[in-house]
Every structure is written in C-alpha cells, then in structure tokens.
Amino acid sequence: MLIEVYFQEIINLMSNFPSIKSYEINQEKRGFYEGFIRAKIIFVDQSYLHIREFVDVEFVVDRKMYSYQYMTFENNLVFRYDNTEHHRKLNLPNFPHHKHDHNENNVINSQAPFL
Questions:
Q1: Residue 115 domain-assigned?
Q2: Which has the closest alpha carbon to 42: 24, 27, 29?
Q3: Phi and psi at residue 18, in whole multiples of 5°?
Q4: Inside any domain, residue 38
Q5: How many domains does the chain have?
Q6: What is the largest CA-CA distance in the chain?
Q7: How far apart are CA 64 and CA 96, in angstroms?
Q8: Is 23:40 a contact under the CB 8 Å cutoff?
Q9: Is 105 exposed, middle or buried, given 0-12, 13-18 or 19+ CB atoms closer than 10 A?
Q10: pLDDT tens for the chain, residues 1 to 115
Q11: Does 27 reside within a domain?
C-alpha cells in the first residue's frame, strides 16, 4: 500500500464518523511508504482527540510512533495512548505500548490501539 492510500483511509474514517463535528489533518509524505499524520478531531460534545502517527505501510501498517490524546472540552485529559519509550522501568508486558488515564502519572499496560 502507498502512504497516500493510508492517508485517505484515515480521512474516510473521520469523514464517516457521525460523532465528529470537524477535524484538521496535516499529512507529510516521507517516501512511497512512510508518512507522518497530525490531526485534531473535535466531537459534537466539544471534546477532542489529538492524533500523531509516523507510519510505514510497505508490507503492513506499522505505526513506528503514535499518540492518541483525548481531552474534554475543558482541556482535561481523559486518556492518552502512546508508544514513547519513557516508561521502561515499569516493565510493562507490552512495552513500549501504554495508556495514561485521566491521571497523567497513572501508566497502564495496553495493546497498540487503532484509531
């Protein structure tokens, strides 16, 4: 799959989700198969989701780096999933994949989610 196809799949997903009020997306092609996406999705209740992904789609969709941060309309963290390697000492079974709940310092083991 070419990176443009993946970018379009993400746009289609956001365009067809009824709870999404609006979205902004920035796509950076970094070759035929690699790219970076930044997006902000605003939901009808005014909560929002910040998305960052660096992906390689040559053979499978491989999200080398991701962060999905969901916030209330009052800018309070609901959760954030990411794969930043800053929690090595916690010995999480699915390291580096983890989730922060509404308490930023509470780090939970998780699988890599899909948007």
A1: no
A2: 24
A3: -65, -25
A4: yes
A5: 1
A6: 40
A7: 11
A8: yes
A9: exposed
A10: 899 999 999 999 999 999 999 999 999 999 999 999 999 999 999 999 999 999 999 999 999 999 999 999 999 999 999 998 776 556 667 778 888 888 777 788 788 888 7
A11: yes
Domain, as residue range, for 77: 3-109
CB 99 within 8 A of CB 77: no
CA distances from 24 to 31, 49, 54, 89 (A): 22, 11, 17, 36
In a domain, 91, yes or no: yes
Residue 47, sorted as left (phi over 0), alpha (psi -120 to 50) or beta, turns out to be: beta
What does the block give as tokens for 92?
């999480």
Q: Which helix (H) or strand (E) holds 5?
A: helix 3-15
pTM of the model: 0.88
The type of residue at 107 is: V
Q: How far is CA 31 from CA 36, 39, 46, 92, in A?
A: 10, 20, 35, 33
